[in-house]
Design brief:
Layout lengths: L3 E19 L5 H13 L9 E19 L3 E6 L5 H8 L7 E6 L3 E4 L12 H11 L4 H15 L14 H14 L4 E4 L8 H16 L3 E5 L3 H7 L2 E6 L2 E7 H14 L4 E2 L3 E3 L6 H7 L1 E9 L14 E9 L6 E9 L4 E6 L14 E8 L7 E11 L3 E14 L32
Parallel strand pairs: 3-7, 3-8, 5-6, 6-7
Antiparallel strand pairs: 1-2, 1-4, 8-9, 10-11, 11-12, 12-13, 13-16, 14-15, 14-17, 17-18
Helix pairs in contact: 3-4, 4-5
């Protein structure tokens, strides 16, 4: 018997988008004139200024894949890539335009805050309602009831209509119901981002438990750390199609590489120009703006920095305000958003800037990069009085570190041997008794 629980073949979903085209803005005179033309239309062949048109939009196109029992599958991609459309089709919320889907087992979905709950019913009543929808008996639901309530942490509000719940309470109860009522397939969209960090961690642990019990999990998220923590395999969607599939770590690397190539940053040989339009309003408000960012290998300007090489980060800025006690912050994160290095002029490094010039250049030299090969993300910021953020630009650019034999062992260090590289030495000697 096949262990495939979801088989999708040539799946497509088409929407018809309507457009209204108008030559220019409508004035009162135009309204009166168009009314007169409408009255005279039966007697003349006039051309309307307003034309309606429509076009086809394929949210999904020619999507095919198989998912095995017990798989934990990540669905990733930029906004509008087709992820949520796929989940709605798999959850039988919407019908596909073309293609075939075969699903074996009960499906529990958590797609949007409020999906599947009746707002006028209490939390207790909604638990039994959702269980019935999944085809469970009252006895089965009662057996799981205490676990659901304990997990959701909403015991005090069980007999309150869920329309009075906060979004966090709603999500906690909805996830607890979906995960505990023993569906063969659990589908979870980005909705978990509504919960706090502790609850998200709790949910990820529960989804792992669900998969180890032989059930299947599909998880959509923009949090690559969560995707990598939970999912063994992933699909990368772009414009309604799967462009990469396989082991999650490789697919998420591809996602960041692909997103970087489509970003609004203008990449030069060693300088990275910020799209000032994206930060224009903030610059006007603060009187400070970064104008250029540079990442350079001082050993060779045309060479990518390798593990153990020096790395020079250069920031150009302009300001029309003389800030007191100014400071600059640089953070390096991995592509999953985990902060690895944070350095600031003050207080971390103890470097004092006495006078802030209206135009300036700040340089940070990391003498030996302690990072294994891979792609990393840069955050930059400007502060005053050590702690007050004036400008903070997150994920402003991505850069690569290439592998290098930093230990002289003949092995170039990559992530398979750890994330950080440290100076060290081994010592061995005989122990005398």
């Amino acid at each position: 018997m096949s262990d495939t629980v979801i088989r999708v073949e040539n799946l497509g979903k088409k929407y018809i988008i309507g457009h209204q085209q108008q030559e220019r803005y409508t004035s009162l005179r135009d309204v009166i004139a168009n009314g007169a033309k409408g009255f005279l239309k039966p007697f003349q062949n006039g051309k309307s200024k307003i034309q309606n048109s429509s076009e086809e939009f394929w949210a999904l196109k020619d999507v095919s894949f198989e998912i095995k029992q017990g798989d934990r599958v990540g669905i990733i991609g930029r906004n509008g890539a087709g992820k949520s459309t796929l989940l709605k089709i798999l959850s039988r919320i919407t019908e596909p335009t073309q293609g075939r889907i075969n699903i074996k087992g009960r499906v529990a979905s958590l797609l949007e805050v409020g999906t599947g709950f009746h707002p006028e019913l209490t939390g207790r009543e909604n638990i039994f309602l959702n269980g019935a929808i999944l085809g469970m008996s009252k006895a089965e639901i009662k057996r799981k009831f205490d676990e659901i309530v304990a997990f959701a942490e909403v015991e005090k509000f069980l007999d309150t209509p869920v329309k009075r719940y906060s979004s966090g309470m709603y999500v906690r109860l909805a996830f607890a119901v979906a995960a505990h009522l023993e569906p063969e397939i659990l589908i979870v969209d980005e909705v978990l981002a509504v919960g706090d960090a502790a609850f998200q961690k709790k949910c990820l642990g529960k989804m792992k438990d669900v998969a180890t019990e032989g059930r299947t999990v599909l998880f959509v998220s923009h949090n690559m750390a969560a995707i990598n923590s939970l999912c063994s395999k992933s699909f990368l969607f772009h414009k309604g199609s799967i462009i990469e599939s396989g082991e999650t770590s490789a697919v998420t690397e591809k996602y960041f590489s692909y997103s970087s190539s489509e970003s609004n940053l203008d990449y030069g040989e060693s300088w990275y120009k910020i799209n000032q339009k994206a930060f224009h309003k903030h610059s006007e408000r603060s009187g400070f703006k970064f104008t250029n960012i540079g990442i350079i290998n001082p050993k060779s300007l045309n060479k990518v920095t390798q593990t153990g090489d020096p790395l020079l980060i250069r920031l150009e800025y302009s300001t029309n305000i003389k800030y007191l006690s100014p400071g600059f912050v640089i953070q390096i994160k991995d592509i999953y958003g985990q902060e690895l290095i944070r350095l600031s002029t003050m207080p971390i490094s103890g470097y004092i800037i006495e006078t802030l010039h209206s135009n300036g250049l700040v340089e940070l030299l990391i003498k030996e990069v302690p990072l294994a090969s891979g792609r990393y993300v840069l955050d930059i910021g400007f502060v005053r009085e050590r702690i007050e953020w004036i400008v903070k630009l997150e994920n402003i650019l991505e850069f690569d570190i290439a592998p290098q034999d930093v230990y002289g062992s003949g092995i170039a260090i990559d992530r398979s041997r750890g994330l950080l590289v440290v100076k060290h030495e081994w010592n061995y000697k005989e122990k005398y008794v």
